[in-house]
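Lab notes, practical 5.
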Amino acid sequence: AALLSARLVFPGESESAADAASSLPEDSDSAFEEKAESAILPDPEAQLGEPAASESETSSADSQPETQPDPEKGKTYPIIETVVGGGTQYGNLFIKTDSGMELPDFTEELASDPDVSVAVDGSPTVLLYHTHTSEAYMESDSTFYYESMKSRSDDPSRTVVAVGDAIAKALEEAGIGVIHDTTVHDTTYTGSYARSEQTVREYMEKYPGIEITIDIHRDGLETADQEKMKPTVEIDGNKAAQIMIMSGCDADGSLNFSDWKYNLRFALQIQNRMTARYGELMRPLYFCDRNYNMHL
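Output from the prediction step:
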């Protein structure tokens, strides 16, 4: 059966719609991690790494919502609410790709069978995990952030783990068996994909019925002027963070990812259904020549 590891990117939620963090670097310990991410978003900035912040470091500054900056807390920068679009349109879908790639026929792949069978008997079918487990959110919506704010936390209620909990709950309520792994893979940033790969392999060996793996991330968009971008839309009167799916491929056969088209088909079907139902909630699907553990 085909397996999907869609790199879902949640820039925020209705209560925490902006990330106050710098963008972070990709690992450099494998071929696919060395490729730049410049095609993901318009004008992305160079990414800066930092160690995970402790709960005490991240919670004190955000404990109470602030409507105005406090000069004693240091320099601030704006958070700009925006809708991220762009890409090339294929029917109902918008897709961004790496420049110079030989592209598949996306319309044909959308119509093709992804070879995924999801059981509704409660047996483990979906694995949720986090390569960058400590990627964190602000605790409240804001129009500014402090220069000193941290992008990472060891408090799972403030990180992508909380997003995974919400997704797991929704899947379980639909009768779909789900495992949510909360292992911290980014105690050091370099090597985090190798560590999460080992976690995924162990689960797949233990639960051979797993059909779908989803690596949930939090994006961080910043301009050259250090403005943070907050990609949000309004759905049924409620503010919601935009979501991006990343689907990889293996253009030259060097990534051990020969069945990438099955992942792409599944990603396109999710993108198509979500776009039909929720419009701009979905950022353009990002199709790239990388695997990010999608080859497992």
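Observations recorded by the TA: The chain is about 20% helix and 20% strand. The first strand starts at residue 4 and ends at 9.
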